[in-house]
Amino acid sequence: MTIKFTRYLYNEDEVKLTLLENLLNQKNLKECYFWIYEYYMSSNVEDTFEFIYKIYYDFYGLKNPKFERKINKYYKQFTNDNDIKSILIIIKHLFKYEKDNTIFVLRKYWTG
After folding, report:
1. Any residues with CB less than 8 A from the CB of 96 and at least 6 apart, and which?
2. Which of 22, 32, 33, 111 is 20 to 30 A from 15 (CA-CA)?
3. How far is CA 95 from the centre of its chain?
4. C-alpha of 80 from chain center
5. Cβ distance 21 to 65 under 8 Å?
6. pTM metric for this prediction
7. pLDDT in tens, 21-53
8. 9: alpha, beta or left, given left = phi > 0 and alpha = psi -120 to 50?
9. Is 11 helix (H, G, I), strand (E, B) or coil?
């Protein structure tokens, strides 16, 4: 197993986990912005949006089903203008939305 590092030499997995922890605990929105930006600058657009969708489906999809369309809209907007604002807006919404970890727990249980 190879460890991937971000541009500032953070362990990539820890960057993702720190972002997730800050989102779920609604600790600090600015930290969420920092970590998603660090991940985005160290990976690619597809990986970043894949991670955002995974977070959405695991923790927010049941309580906020209509937000998926907005994520799709922001993704499309991002692919047109490459403006990080689209990603930050998604993070801002997720930060304030109600969570439910049912899907995450079921997925972890099912896949072992």
Report:
1. 26
2. 111
3. 10
4. 20
5. no
6. 0.92
7. 999 999 899 999 999 999 999 988 899 999 999
8. left
9. strand
* Residue 41 burial (CB count, 10 A): 13
pLDDT of residue 112: 60
Measured CA to CA, the distance from residue 37 to residue 45 in angstroms comes to 11
77: its two tokens: 């907007």
What span, in angstroms and rounded, lies between the C-alpha atoms of 16 and 65?
23
By three-state DSSP, how is residue 5 classified? strand
Contacts of 19 (CB under 8 A, 6+ apart): 32, 35, 36, 39
pLDDT of residue 108: 83
Q: Quick one: three-class SS letters along 70-109? A: HHHHHHHHHHHHCCCHHHHHHHHHHHHCCCCCHHHHHHHH
